[in-house]
Design goal:
single chain, mainly alpha, Arc Repressor Mutant, subunit A, Tetracycline Repressor, domain 2, 2 domains, 11 helices
Length: 234
């Protein structure tokens, strides 16, 4: 409980998060769907939307199944009916995180061609756009990685798999750039890719917490310049 509070207080501006996520589930049609299939889909979306907001603001371990159900306007039994467990709710959100924030970036890098600078630029551009459009999912991955770090359970394993996909794509790009002489070679590819990933996460959290104090486009440009200054050979 204390650990979750520390994570939430450290990474999330609660007032801003409340205003940013309080309407997540309101996008789900609350009227009774016409068919059972539509009702099932609406219930699942309501549960996932509220769980996403609660996991971000309170932490996973501090959030109860009852809170998720109540926030979604459903019963506790509905959570178990659709997901079997709270862990499966988080797994479903992580699957969606991969679909919405990681897969598109990897695809953008692949579509950028063979030039390593173009691929790195595609990474920065894609993550900047996704960070603005899929804010809660980006933050979920960061916060859950911190909360489950060292737990040794299947959630940590899943989170590590997600992050590894992105880091592997970056590492391959860096290695190619080093081999072609366009990226700095005095720093190992593993270390350089890890630093880019860490900078990406840190910049995103800083931008999110400061909100309107920073213009997203200007901040993304500064991030790009910072990454390229530290990566490209001079």
């Amino acid at each position: 409980m204390v650990r979750n509070k520390i994570l939430s207080d450290q990474y999330v501006n609660r007032d801003r998060m409340d205003s940013h996520t309080e309407n997540i589930a309101e996008n789900v049609d609350r009227e009774r769907p016409a068919t059972k299939r539509e009702q099932r889909a609406a219930s699942i979306e309501a549960l996932l939307g509220e769980a996403l907001a609660l996991f971000i603001t309170q932490g996973y371990h501090a959030t109860t199944v009852e809170e998720i159900a109540q926030a979604a306007g459903l019963t506790k039994g509905a959570v178990y009916f659709y997901f079997k467990s709270k862990a499966n709710v988080l797994k479903a959100l992580l699957d969606r995180t991969e679909e919405l924030t990681i897969a598109p970036t990897i695809a953008a890098m692949a579509s950028a061609g063979e030039d390593p600078e173009d691929r790195l630029s595609a990474f920065v551009r894609s993550q900047s756009v996704i960070g603005a459009e899929k804010t809660e999912y980006m933050l979920l991955a960061i916060l859950m990685s911190a909360e489950f770090n060292g737990s040794g359970d299947e959630i940590e394993q899943r989170l590590n798999e997600l992050m590894a996909r992105m880091e592997d794509a970056l590492r391959e790009t860096v290695m190619t750039g080093q081999q072609k002489g366009v990226f700095r070679a005095e720093i190992g590819a593993d270390e350089l890719a890890s630093v880019i990933m860490a900078t990406n996460k840190g910049c995103y959290v800083e931008w999110y917490m400061r909100g309107s104090d920073l213009k997203g486009q200007d901040f993304a440009r500064a991030f790009r310049e910072f990454v390229f200054d530290g990566t490209v050979a001079r």
